[in-house]
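Record pair follows.
FIRST:
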Amino acid sequence: MTACPTLDDLRDRLTLALAEDLGEAGDVTTNAVFPAEHRSHARIVAKADGIMAGGPIVEAVFGLHDPDVKVERLIEDAKKVKPGDLAIRLEGTTRSLLSGERLALNFLQRLSGVATLTAAFVEASGGRVAVCDTRKTTPLWRDLEKYAVACGGGTNHRFGLFDMVMLKDTHADGAGGLAEALRRVEPLRPGLKVAAEARDMKEVHAALAAKVDLLMLDNMSDEALGEAVALIAGQVPIEITGGVNLQTIGRLAEFGVERVSIGALTHSAVALDFSMRIDLGS
C-alpha cells in the first residue's frame, strides 16, 4: 500500500493549516476558559460505517501543535469502522486538545471518506479490475488523497504531469492525430511509460502500432468497448476511463479489462463522520 506521508512530509502544510485556524491570538475562547495547566483525555469516535484513513495525520497534527499530547491509535488505517468505534485516544492539555481538534478531524474525515468511496467501487467491481485514481485531487492534498485511495483498496495512477506520458484527446487533436502525437513523445522513452486515450478504433490501432504501455478507452459505448477489447486481446493493459460510476463499474468490469480510472474517488467523496469527545480533567 502507498505509504502515508510523514510529519516531515507534512510539516510545512500543517504549519500553514494550524496558522489558518489559530492566527496570532490562538484559540481565544478555550484559552479564556481553561488554565494552561488544565489537562483532559479525548476520544475520537466513528459515527458512520466506512474505512479508516488518516490516523497518522491526526498524530502528526498534534505532534506539531503540541508534542506533549499523547496519541494512541486503536484502529489502523485501511480497517473498517462502524458507529461508536473508538478510533483514537488522546491525552494532553485541554487547550492543545481543543485547538488541534478541528484540523485533525478535517484530515481524518476527508481521507476516510475517500477510502470509503474507493472501497465501495472495489466492492461494486467484484474485485475484477484495479480501481484507479486520477489527478482530480484537492490542491496540496494529492499525496494524502492517493494514500486514502490505497487504504480503500484502490490503485494509484500517475502522481502528476511529470511521471508518465499520457496523451489525451487535446494532445491528439493538437498534433493532427493520435499517431502523430505518439511519434512526438517517442523520444521520452524508455525513461517514461506512455499511456494513450483512444476514442475510436482508428486511435486504438494507432496506439497498438506505437506499442503504448497502457491503452485507455475513453467514453466508448459498450459495442465499441467490446470491439476494442477483442482487437487488443492482451497485447497491452487496458483501462476504461470516463463516466465510470457505482452503477456501471460492475458491467464494465465484465469486459475483461485490467483497470478503470475514476475521478470521483477524490473529487466527489463525502467526508466520513467522526467526533472528538473531551473527558474533562482538572
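SECOND:
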Amino acid sequence: MGNASSSATVAANADHMASSFDELVARGVYSKGHVHADAFRALFRTGMADALGTLETNTPRILEVGCGAGAWIDDTLALLNEEGVSGEVFGTDISPKMVETCQARFAGRLPPERFFVGDILADGGYGNGDAAYDLIVAYDVVQQLPRAAQPAAFDAMARHLTPGGVLLIFDNEADSSFGRSMARKKFLTRYFRLPLVPRYFCNARYPAMAATAKRLAADGWSTRLTQVNGLHKVYMLVGSGPA
C-alpha cells in the first residue's frame, strides 16, 4: 500500500509540474528568447567546461534533463563551438509547451526530434530504447521533485550514462543558510500570501546536495561538489560508474 501511495504521489506531482510549466510558457514567463542572469550563466559555463574536461570523447552526446525554454542549451552550443567540440545535444522536459518552445528556438539549428517530452524518473523519459549519453545535465530540476523521489532521480540519470560519462547537476543546497532562508520565504508566501518570492518558486524543494554526494560516493561513484564565486548555487559532478 505504501509503495502504491508513493507512486501515485509522484505521478500526481509529474502531472502538476507539466501543467504548471505549460502555464508559465502560456503566460510568457518562459519563451524562446529566455536567457538567464549573467552570474548564473558564468556558473553554468564553469560547470560545463569542468564536465567536458573529464570526458574521454571529443564528440559527446549531451542531454539536458528539464531543458525548459532552451537557454542552457544555447549556452552549451556556444561553449562547444568555442572549445572546438563537435557533439550532439538533446533536451527533454516534462512540459510539452517547453519542448515546443525549444523546437521553435532551435529551428534550423537542431533537428526537432532532439527535443522530446520525458519524465526524469522514467527510463522512457531519456529517449528511445536504451539511449545513453556522455554528459547529462540538470539545472534546478531535482528541486521540482518530492523529496522522497529525489534520490531516484539521481539514480535514473546515472543509468543513462555511457561508460566514462558524467552527470552535471546544478541546484541549491537545502542544508545551507540560503536553503533555510528560502524555505521560510516560500512557506510565508504559500500559506500567508506574503509576496516574498514568485508563487511558482513555492513548488521547489531544494535537494540535500552534500548528503547526496556522500551517498553516491559510498556506492562507489566519483563525486565532487563545487561552489563558484560565492554564489548560493552549487554544481555536482558524478562519475559514470562504480570504481
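COMMENT: The chain has a mean pLDDT of 92.
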